[in-house]
Amino acid sequence: MCGIVGYLVKADATCALGGPLLAMLGALALRGPDSAGVAVWGRATAGLKVRVKTSAGLIGFEAPSGEPGELALQIEAREPGAEVVSMGRRLEIVKQVGRPEDLEMAFGVSGLTGTHGLGHTRLSTESRIDLSHSQPFWARGTPDLAVVHNGHITNYHRLRRLYEQDGTRFYTENDSEIIGIYLARQLGEGASLEEAMESSVKELDGSFSYLAATADTFGFAKDPFCLKPLLVGEDAVAIAVANEEVALHAALSSPYTAREAGAGAVTAWKVGPGSEWPAAPGPCLP
Amino acid sequence: MTVVDCAGLTVREINQALRRLIDAGEREITVRHPAARHNLAVAILRDVSISIEGPVGYYCGGMSDGAHIEIHGSTGWGVAEGLLSGTVVVDGHAGNAAAASIRGGEVVVRGDAAARAGVAMKGGLLVIGGSAGYMTGFMMQRGIIVICGDAAEGIADSMYEGVVYIGGVIAEPGSDTVVSDASAEEHTEIGATLTRHGLKGPDTFRKIVSGRKLWNYHRSERELWKTAF
Question: Is there a contact between A269 and A8 (Cβ–Cβ < 8 Å)?
Fold first, then answer.
């Protein structure tokens, strides 16, 4: 199970995102009651937006720019048990144990704005239920890259052993974590996010649908056997992706189009300057 | 015509409302605001006409016997799964496993059908007005599938019996299939079927049947089995 959602406003502008994301997650709450979270790509800051899990809960602040991997380690060294859950000039992740509706009370998700966002509601099947194992996952060390996943990556242990040999540190026992690490490695070798996602469909085994996004790209990938659901819907304002249509229905205005993605499908949309969208449609903020 | 408005009702309440109306003798029912919810109009065992105005989730019309269900919107996985008789028409696209394991009746998807449509069919007819996804007709045992558009990889893989007709491009036939041209008589039958459901297909169809080599294991055909697996 697990519910995954994505929402991309068809505009090169910052728009209201939290409401649609929350509505989509709420519609999928039965797919995952254990934890919930959203990732939103908002206005760019001069420094790096950081969200850290601490003993006081999930806190956010802006840090001066630095090498993200090193900066995360420095922040985590300040308090035992601290864990950076997101970092980027535009990315912010909020997540917690509990159902999607609890997110609103804790973080005021409905007020979040941005160009695109992801959401996840988790049914734990193979690892702990805590904030660290909740999604979305930030791809550590790569600013602004985050992933949400439904399914199982069955060659996770083999890939993890391989990556650990060259020093990659894993923060969870959750197989979904490997997707962000895989994509980050591909980006580090010069691939675009879409190229990285296309190779992931060949190199990751198992049944999976996942969504991934950076500051300038938003996309989805589906396993080659089409074992996990994933639908893409579109109306005049936005593109929405989710693993049940009930979530698309909660976010899009009728009439909208919706269709199941094909086996091994990868689709990515450009966001921001260079995208095909107009600069400021009606529903967005000035 | 009687209306069931799904707004504010649980799935159980919607299905109970349908059953109450049918038991009271209603034979034409419209369902409004389905909001893509799962398991609507399942196990309808009477000769009744149900029109659903909007998208539905998983298993709509499943296990029904004798009803005519028309969905004006897209469907999730397993629409009409286990249908015994009657018709289920999707005026839109269908998710995975449309008409899975049907034993009879007719399922019509006017748009595209996603992966494994008609998987394990044991009879009946599945018509797809658009294109068919990965492994459509996988392990079908009986029945007929008509695809007006293209067929993705693995079409009719490991089928036991039955026939699949494809009007568009076959990306890659499944294991143990035999592809040939449909005969003039078969084209006439396909044309009549499409006309009956208000569809227009291409002029010519290819035909896929089982090669029957996977029916029984024989050591000399080990490579064939390795490929199939």
Answer: yes
| A226 contacts B76? CB cut-off 8 A | no
- Out of B76, B93, B112, whose CB is closest to A244? B76
- The CATH number covering residue A219 comes to 3.60.20.10
Query: Catalytic annotation on A2?
Result: yes
Question: Which has the closest alpha carbon to B145: B158, B130, B126?
Answer: B126
* Structure tokens, B67: 């009803």
Q: What is the pLDDT of residue B190?
A: 98
Q: How many residue contacts between A and B have a Cβ separation below 8 Å?
A: 59
Q: How many CB atoms within 10 Å of residue A44?
A: 13
- Which domain does A263 fall in, by range? 3-37+97-270
pLDDT of B117 > 50? The answer is: yes
In angstroms and rounded to an integer, the radius of gyration of the C-alpha atoms of chain A is: 17
Q: Are B116 and B134 in contact (CB under 8 A)?
A: yes
Is B74 part of the contact surface with chain A (CB cutoff 8 Å)?
A: yes
Which of A201, A222, A249 to mutate to probe the B interface, most B CBs <10 Å? A249
Closest CA to B205 of B223, B189, B187: B187
Question: What is the pTM assigned to this prediction?
Answer: 0.93
- State whether A260 and B57 contact (CB < 8 Å): no
Mutate to test the interface with A, among B134, B150, B153 (most CBs of A within 10 A): B134
ipTM of the prediction: 0.90
> Which segment of A4-13, B6-15, B220-229 scores lowest on mean pLDDT?
B220-229
In terms of Cα–Cα distance, which of A151, A158, A142 is closest to A70? Answer: A142
Homologous superfamily in CATH for domain B34-228 = Glutamate synthase, alpha subunit, C-terminal domain (2.160.20.60)
